[in-house]
Amino acid sequence: MQQAISAGHETTLAVAKEILLAKGNAFDAAIATHLAMFIAEPCMASAGGNGFALTRTAKGKVQFFDFFCQTPINKETLNGLDFYPVKIDFGSDSETFHVGLGAAAVPGSIAGVFEMHRRFGTIPMKELVQPAIQLAKEGVPLDTFQAFDFQLLEPIFRQDPNVKDIFFKPDGKIKEEGDLIQMPEMADFLTFISIEGERGFYQGGIAKRIADDSQQRGGFLTRADFENYQVNVLDPLKFNYKNRHIYLPNGPSKGGAILAMMLSQVNEHESSLALAIEKTQRLVADESKIKTHLDQLVPNNNFSFQPSISSNRGTSHFNILDRWGNAVSLTSSIGEGCGYFIPDTNMQLNNMLGEIFLLPDGAHSWEPDTRLHSMMTPTMITQKNGDLEFIAGSGGAGRIPFAIGQVIFQLYEKQKNLRQSTEYPRVHFQEGKFQIERGFDFSMEKENVIFWENLAMYFGGVHSIFNDGKRLEALGDARRFGVAEVF
């Protein structure tokens, strides 16, 4: 059987391919790939970050791995709160985020890869860390997308002088496309955890150092937060669609429910897609009613959801299908990063508690010891006989489930091929406005319509794999410089 990969970076694809060619399975490849993202895609992945993954074994069992961030157990700080605004300039617009140790939640990425390895890994962890170690030592050239993110996040990278040589040139300017990113301390860190396991991170000296710095400098994290962190392995949200089964992340992902609600309202008319997005956005505005609305639109679902706060930014995604039929769809995030880099690791902590516009009652109104929510939506579709047909996911903040849903719509309602479905113009509805890529069939009489002349990063990058039994295809969305390969 052929194998396939689609991802957000050439280097992460190359690492996944290396493991698959070495006879590793999709889970081995996903572990090595996620670790490689720490150096190749440092704006979207880190040991201080988190993620969601859908996994499918060759025998057809699909599970949802939730290794997203957890809020601290309490809100007590020993000193003044390390929590402050940073303005990010998007050119035509700007936005303020909050960083500092007071914005950091408990990270889950290291626990996530070890949990996946315990259940499905066939190659020793000491070998799976080697590609990332080599990248950390030798360096990865900045690609177009990462260079763009470096420019955006420059104010955050400047918060910690210990990493200036990683992200800045000798003249003090932020590194640009083609410049080499090296993380020598990350190489030692990965060697350490490959020996000590996740205990070396969550129960050892690394957690102690983060907790001590947090308490001394004005953050919320303590040793207990790390010692109590757990990966949740759950049944996915599952529902029927076009004589197929769609598998989506369960709570704490809002994205799975949103995608299911959106698809339940579309028909063959393209205008129904825009209307379904608008209606779904209005339905999910009140998180406490998401489950109620989903039950009405998709009866007998197994979605489990408790309202919390969400973090939707700084995401990247990859999919891997191996020769045996095992598959992984994984999305990761660090938010924007909090500007604190874990000593001796070159790894930045997340700022998942720093998006205060998501907190109705203001900064620090989050509930203690609670899993955060995300729109990240790794997705799988199987045929009625159980054969895996479609694997997908996306970066794109709050637009993630809507972007994936539109690719599914074009594939299954319009019968387009994978490339046509991915490259077809998209629509999004947010804050009372329709945003539309030129070429989308939008013939409705609506106010507040904004047209984009070209396919845009704003609309998310849906990386995917499709196998209809006749041909295996993989595609990386050009909107986010995606890459793919079948071999």
Could you characterize the architecture of this molecule?
By secondary structure, this protein is α+β, with helices and mostly antiparallel strands. 32% of the residues lie in helices and 22% in strands. The chain has 16 helices and 22 strands. It has a seven-stranded antiparallel sheet, with helices on one face. A six-stranded antiparallel sheet has the order 9-10-15-16-20-21. A hairpin with a 2-residue loop joins strand 9 (237-241) and strand 10 (244-248). Helix 1 (10-21) packs antiparallel against helix 2 (26-40) and helix 5 (130-138) packs antiparallel against helix 8. The longest helix has 15 residues, at 26-40. It is globular and about 55 Å long. It starts with a strand and ends with a strand.
Write the layout of secondary structure elements.
Layout: E1 4-7, H1 10-21, H2 26-40, E2 50-56, E3 62-67, E4 84-89, E5 94-99, H3 109-120, H4 125-128, H5 130-138, E6 140-141, H6 144-157, H7 164-167, E7 180-181, H8 184-196, H9 199-202, H10 205-217, H11 223-227, E8 232-234, E9 237-241, E10 244-248, H12 255-263, H13 270-283, H14 290-297, E11 315-321, E12 327-333, E13 341-342, E14 347-348, E15 379-383, E16 388-395, H15 400-412, H16 418-423, E17 427-430, E18 433-437, E19 449-452, E20 461-467, E21 472-475, E22 483-486
